[in-house]
Amino acid sequence: MAELVYDNGRLLFTEEMRKEYTILIPMMLPLHFKMLEQIFNSHGYKAELLYTTGRKVVDEGLRNVHNDTCYPALLVIGQLIDALRSGKYDKRKVALMITQTGGGCRASNYISLLRKALIKNGLEYVPVVSLNFVGLERNPGWKITPSMFKDMIVGICYADLMVWLANQVRPYEQTPGITDRLCERWTKYLCETDFKLTEYRKNLTQIVKDFESIPYTPKDLPKVGIVGEVYIKFAPLGNNNLEQFLRKEGCEVVITGLLDMVLFMADHNIVETELYKMNYGKYIVYAGAKVFMRRVQNGIIKAVKSSRFTPPGKFEDTKANSEGYVSPGNKMGEGWLLTAEMLELLHSGVNNIVCAQPFGCLPNHIVGKGMIRKIRNAHPEANIVAVDYDPGATAVNQENRLKLMLSTARGSSTLASPKAPSAQKEDENTPLTV
């Protein structure tokens, strides 16, 4: 049994725990987090991703977190406490992982709420590991090395690419489920290999080719973009399966990748130095990390450009969209990135946008809902709906707001028309050539 070690009252995750403990990871993006789980394991940790969902997670969160607290915190903490109470794990041999952004958002304080919930449940001996890139909450048994950071960025980019392509193929596939099966097969392949940069561009090219080979039928469908607070934007648990609902309504979903959020976090540390002439050491570190991440992201854009698919935008181009709308120094919540993503969608011809946000999230109400009128003044074609998510919000009310937006979308001429060659016959062994 690992000895419990404290630092100023905080239980540390020690080197001994690293060998003995399983780290439980709350779910946000299934494809991305499955790769991150594998990366953590390949670097000497024992990590396990949680797939629990449904009302029981919400209720567990309500029992342990005040209902005025940010909805993502309630869901993440509810999922972690639910896992501990499930009887599946040895409570003396598990640790919990939670992210910390380090910004002004309440997300930086979720970790304190989680520890309070553990104490309330008599589980104060369970260590909490902070996943952050800003030097918060260091632990002897947890460290993001340069090699691990590289693997994480490469894994995120692989997942970003597959999600981006899948959304452009899934609504038009001739065989239901073939796109999802391709994502699963590529994810399995990538997790069974390592994340070498020497194989990166080759894999990107092959992934694009495999998605291009999926047999499909061209249709005129409305394109609907999703922006918002990062957890509510991506997590099916947080947005009541928003993407699935839009697909059932006959839409092509457009959603930007997770790497843009990571780049945003690095960027606002750089901008902070430029604006306030401080933290020059951090500036050098984050500037170097940003250069690396942009190069990896450019690999995705280059691979997609050579195909029939619409490529994702470059981070710097996305940032430039926010000029004249939001200051680059606005980093609270999703900051200028949320506004910029709405404008990027409009510039790419996606006029129908869902802005998904937790009810009571002040920063994102300002840069999300608060910017809609200004955006519409410049883009009269913008069809934007802001949807709030919280424990008391019913799916029926959310879906009614979405259906109203979709009725406007279907009445417009802005429909998705995929650039399609003639339909192809599906081979059971393809697509996937790895």
Question: How would you explain this protein's 3D organization?
Answer:
- The protein is of the alpha/beta class.
- Helix content is 49%, strand content 11%.
- The protein is built from 17 helices and 11 strands.
- The longest helix has 26 residues, at 280-305.
- The chain is globular.
Kindly name the structural category: alpha/beta
Beta-strand percentage range: 5-15%
Number of strands: 11
Number of DSSP helical runs:
17
Order of helices and strands: EEHEHEHHEHEHHHEHHEHHHHEHHEHE
What are the key terms here?
5-stranded mixed beta sheet, Rossmann fold, alpha/beta, disordered C terminus, 434 residues, 3 domains, globular, 17 helices, 11% strand, single chain, 4-stranded parallel beta sheet
Concise description?
The protein has helices at residues 15-20, 30-42, 55-64, 71-85, 110-120, 146-169, 178-192, 200-212, 230-234, 242-248, 259-276, 280-305, 315-321, 335-347, 362-367, 372-378, 395-411; strands at residues 6-7, 10-11, 22-25, 47-49, 94-99, 128-131, 221-228, 252-255, 352-358, 383-389, 415-416. The chain is α/β, with parallel strands linked by helices and 434 residues long. The protein has three domains: 6-139, Rossmann fold (3-Layer(aba) Sandwich), CATH 3.40.50; 145-217 and 278-312, no CATH class; 220-256 and 313-420, 3-Layer(aba) Sandwich (Rossmann fold), CATH 3.40.50.
Please outline the helices and strands.
Blueprint: E1 6-7, E2 10-11, H1 15-20, E3 22-25, H2 30-42, E4 47-49, H3 55-64, H4 71-85, E5 94-99, H5 110-120, E6 128-131, H6 146-169, H7 178-192, H8 200-212, E7 221-228, H9 230-234, H10 242-248, E8 252-255, H11 259-276, H12 280-305, H13 315-321, H14 335-347, E9 352-358, H15 362-367, H16 372-378, E10 383-389, H17 395-411, E11 415-416
